[in-house]
Amino acid sequence: LRSACGVKTMSKGFDLKGAIRCLRDGEALGVLLDQDFGGNGMVVPFMGIPASTPFGPVKMADRIGSSVVPMFIVRRPDGIHHDLYIQPALGEAGGLPFGKDVEASLELCNDTMSEWITRYPGHWMWLYPRWASTTGDR
Q: Most buried of 8, 13, 74, 85 (most Cβ within 10 A)?
């Protein structure tokens, strides 16, 4: 569905060169940061619990000069239609421009997602143990 709309996504085994090319070409690149990244991530709070979070997208955005724009889809009460909420680009994190302080930038990303998940908990599709690598819960 995403690719049918012209949106490219990065997964755990994504193509870095392809992602950089996408951003340099001015295309949108979707990134799902609510993944447990195990020993390859940076541990920052997600929903108030320490979670291994992929930091590559934050570093890449800083390196290329891309904005990080949070987007959320909320299902309408009719259960059929959805609203897409596009937030302003994430700004300062840790008193620095977004991406310069990677840990603070990741916390800002996770805090932004956590706010929306708290507001619409039934809309977060969680099919795996998000905190497995930091809490041992499987």
A: 8
61 neighbors 47 (Cβ within 8 angstroms): no
Where would I find the beta strands (DSSP E) of 17-105? Answer: 29-31, 42-46, 49-53, 71-75, 82-86
Calpha distance 34→109 (Å, rounded): 10
Q: How confident is the model at residue 115 (pLDDT cuts 50, 70, 90)?
A: very high
Distance, C-alpha 3 to centroid of its chain: 17
**pLDDT value at position 100?**
96
Average pLDDT of every residue of the chain: 87
**Which among 8, 50, 39 is positioned nearest to 26, based on CA atoms?**
8
What is the total residue count of the chain? 138
Residue in 18, 42, 17, 31 with CA at minimum distance from that of residue 93: 42
| Residues in Cβ contact with 44 at an 8 Å cutoff, skipping those fewer than 6 apart | 50, 51, 53, 103, 106, 107, 110
